[in-house]
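Morning!

This is the sequence you dropped in the shared folder:
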Amino acid sequence: MNPQPLLCIRVLLVGAAVLLAPMALSQEQHPAAPPPPPNAKKVQCKGRPVPQLEDVTEKAGIRFRHIANPLSTYIVESMSGGVILWDYDRDGWLDIYFTNAPTIEMALRKESARGALYHNNHNGTFSDATDKSGLAAPCFAMGGAVADYNNDGWPDLYLTCLGGNVLFRNNGDGTFTDVTAKAGVADGRMSVGAAFGDYDRDGFVDLMVANYVDFQLDHLPPFGGKSLCKYRGIDVYCGPRGLKGAGDSLFHNNGDGTFTDVSKAAGVDDPHGYYGLGVVWADFNNTGWPDIYVANDTLPNFLYRNDGKGKFTEIGLESGTALSETGSEQASMGVALGDYLHNGRPSIYVTNFGDDYSDLYRNDGNWMFTDVSYASGVALPSFPLVKWGDAFVDLDNDGWLDLVAVSGHVYPQMEKVPASGGYAQTKLLHMNQKDGTFCDAGNLAGPALEERRVSRGLAVGDLFNDGNVDVVVEDLDSAPMILQNHGVSGRHWVSLELAGTRSNRMAIGTRVKIVAGGMTQTDEVRSGGSYISQSDFRLHFGLGSAEKIESLEVRWPSGKVETFKNLAADRFYALLEGEGVVPAERIRPVSHIPCWKGKGSFQQSGFGRFPTYRAASKPNAAGTSMLLDRPIPKALFYSHVRLEAKRNALDALSCFGTDRTSTQAAAQDPLRKEGGYDTNNDTNRNERETAPSELPENNGRPEWTRTIDLFRVREAL
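The structure's back. Tokens below.
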């Protein structure tokens, strides 16, 4: 089919939408969308097993409750509630962070709202680790995203907030340090969505932030009265229409712990001030370069095509992902990506406001998409609900991605309005029928999905390491929901955790393709997504009846491609760039070195692509030189850095109970035995041990003679 006529039609629809925009400003908030087509049908799931999702929140020990204004007097009071699933202590089990936000009345009194960090106890329960962590009351928090921004092996947390975002560096000991000022990523507006992605593939993740409205505590909008402060004739809070939009931000990672705002230069600053909410990175056209998708409230969505060299082109309208099937603007919120058709390309699922459907944009290739929401069966069940967090996820492990989404109105006043859907609402579950369509299973997966809640954030991940992906939901005005997935008996699966070496440490942007049981599936490691939430970084693939993976291909952001054959099913695998399948410990950071004590100094210096860390010390009371007075720095991760010790300091290796010199250590390096190092390659050379003979006296540092890379440190431990 020639795409030009279709493109012309889309441009005409866009022009009409732009012309009608001023008319929309004279209407109430969220004018009703066109009604469903007369042939639209809701297809109920029949004759298939549906996994049961059990609410185990109380049993798991979760006691958190989000703060809410029962009247939602201001728009910011209706937007918070992000879920963060991450393995913050790198023990192989997912932990949970819930964001929280005060009411405006509390904020004016300088009162904060307490977020909550829960540590996974490995036995189905969680312990509250908030007080120790330093994450108790970070800001007027909306949501967040996770990434290892400094490539030290420890996942860091970025929280979006009203009045200034916060970047928390993971210290590797259960605590976090606010490094926002140094990093330069506060933004300062009302940020909602955020996601990390390495758009220039330099090995350091960059940060995209979607901002919403210009909201100032010292200049509060009124409640009700004007037409833009009404919904269905009832007074409600003002916004987003009628309020000034905030514009978006792209922060480039400088590789030294700081970021530079390149929004305008990159072409993603949103100069017209749309109302940004959800944001994701993805390589939509398999070019190897990550693109950006932004879901905007009540205005067209953005698709930024990565043109390379730090530039993006906005093609949302041309691509078919900016408007509805009929060319209408929608109030978009959450974004989920997934290859639900097994065509090797991520499609886009966007949740929208009530009296409108959620969009399923099928990826047809060449940055062209088709709205198949009604044709696929996901539109009609969503129509009456105000939808938020969402995810593509294979809940029944049959190898085909399903869809889950949560809902809840923004106006408490709707609870008593007939045909409004109410304030508290049910959840959506669409099971993949393997033919491009979905059936509705919202009333078949257990009572939890039918329980009416005012939900916001949603994240998915295997909380219990049992091979079934679970669902975590944060509500605006009540306790969250931990929905344990009991799966379908007899189905197989595989879970992959990836770590980059030349690519960014958490392998964000890595594309994986597996072939098993006659199915080919693809997925990508992503930061952020859904609505203000973070899902499991591990890639989970259901395998159906297949008992092994015939082929697994990994395309790293660095450009390296690796292929593996005949991997057994029902296992968790760790994949390290350049080394393949390794023990899980090999992709985790070094944490504490028991003998790292005494007085001393510590400094970091550039050494090739990755930093070198030097340990110098003063004699202790016994006259013996020790290394440092603290645990090994969290930035020391075995595959990327060098540790050096002075001649007059304790040999680095003796800290681990050995007197081997770096030359001896190198001789026992399995990578060198296997030819894993290319000594003619400068980058690889900087990642291997350097013998004293390679440090000549005239190189400006003759005293630095003992060296070892942290790969050997991990082996010694």
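Headline: The two ends are 60 Å apart (CA to CA).

More detail when I'm at my desk.
O.
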